[in-house]
Amino acid sequence: MTHIDLDTLVRLREPGREPGQAEAEKHLAECEACRREADRLEQRVARLKALPTLKPSRDAWPAVHARLRAEHRVRTRRLATFGLAIAAGLALILLLHGASSSSKTLSPALTEAMARSGQLEQLLESYNSDGRITDGHTDGMAGALEDQIARIDRQLEMAQLLRARERDTALLNLYRERIGLLDALMDVHVTRASNVGL
Amino acid sequence: MADAIPLPNAEAVLAQARDGDVAALEELYRAFETPVYNLARRICRTSEDAEDVMQETFFEVCRNLRQYRGEGSLWGWIRTVAASKALMRLRRNKYRDTDELEDEAHQGPRSDHGLRMDLEAALERLPEISRAVVWLHDVEGYTHEEIAGMMGRTVSFSKSQLARAHTRLRRWLGEETLV
């Protein structure tokens, strides 16, 4: 009599039907040696499940937390870096073209808008400097706003290349839009913080 | 491992963790660190790899907690993240699919005649993929379809790895050979 091999015994434990399974099951029901082998297989699985639980020798939480904070900060800094780059670019253009330009200084409205934009960036920076972890929903909203701000920043870079009169109008409009987005981003963080009681 | 969240105030902790509360995230970590490590260690070759997998797992869990919508147990979700990370680690370490090649590369040609060891040692001695399959299937309860999906292999590959693993375990444990 041919006994069932271990490969077949292992497959017999699976749900569903495979070719030759009925024949193997019939043999198993009639053959004591194969039943003993099947029992040993079950016992081996039971012993595997009963193996002691292995425990970590180190606490990984500080490393996990540090990575979460680092990732959060990278995104916050990316926003601040955009703002600084735009302001620096504008200053450079004024310096290079100031002598030949009809307007050596920015309009008061534009100066005020740039200042307000800078203030909001600083506020956001200080708000996020504690490294609080943002949840997925807030993360999504903040990410969408940051993407829009990044789009404005690219337009600001292009606007710097315009002639003085057109440039100031374009910059003013873009800075006003930027301020609106920064305000909205601020609201997202304030709402999140109040929800979790921070 | 129980499928329920081993936390007395699980729902509140989960809600706070989703809102980015650091204390709640740490509480989740504390609740699941041991089962995650145990799973990773049973699959990975070294404790260092297992600790790396644990860190990767919790980093991803904390970042994507919103993706867990309460369908199935939280442990089930975390466990799948951990298993995927552990298998990814095996791939990164350039494991070999062919058991014989692995045996020869690591331990040289050998005979198993007269060999008898305890289950812990026998499990540790299995080739990495066989060990991963036997653990995920027999202990963690994954189906061959799920294992095949996580490994990017076929169902029959998973089944044959399981059968090979049991053949070797039986031999190394000194259990009676039938055929």
Textual characterization of the structure:
The complex is a heterodimer of chains A (198) and B (179). By secondary structure, chain A is an all-alpha fold. Chain A has 2 domains: 6-49, no CATH class; 61-195, no CATH class. Chain A is 75% helix and 0% strand. Chain A has helices spanning 6-12, 21-30, 32-49, 61-97, 108-128, 136-159, 164-195. Chain B is built from 9 helices and no strands. With 179 residues, chain B is mainly alpha-helical. At the A-B interface, helix 1, helix 3, helix 4 and helix 6 of A face helix 2, helix 3, helix 6, helix 7 and helix 9 of B.
Q: Given the structure, what is the number of helices of chain B?
A: 9
Rg value of chain A: 33 Å
Q: Return the average pLDDT of chain A rounded to an integer.
A: 78
Classify the oligomer: heterodimer
Count of separate structural domains of chain B? 2
Strand content of chain A: under 5%
Mean pLDDT of chain B, as a whole number? Answer: 84
Here the CATH topology of the largest domain in chain B equals: Rna Polymerase Sigma Factor, Chain: A
**Shape type of chain B:** elongated
Give the ordered list of helices and strands of chain B. HHHHHHHHH
- The stretches of 5 or more residues of chain A where confidence is low (pLDDT under 50) are none
Straight-line distance between termini of chain A:
75 Å
Helix content, binned percent of chain A:
over 70%
Instruction: Describe the main β-sheet of chain B briefly.
Output: none
The structural domain count of chain A equals: 2
Total strands of chain B: the figure is 0
Instruction: Give the SSE order of chain A as H and E letters.
Output: HHHHHHH
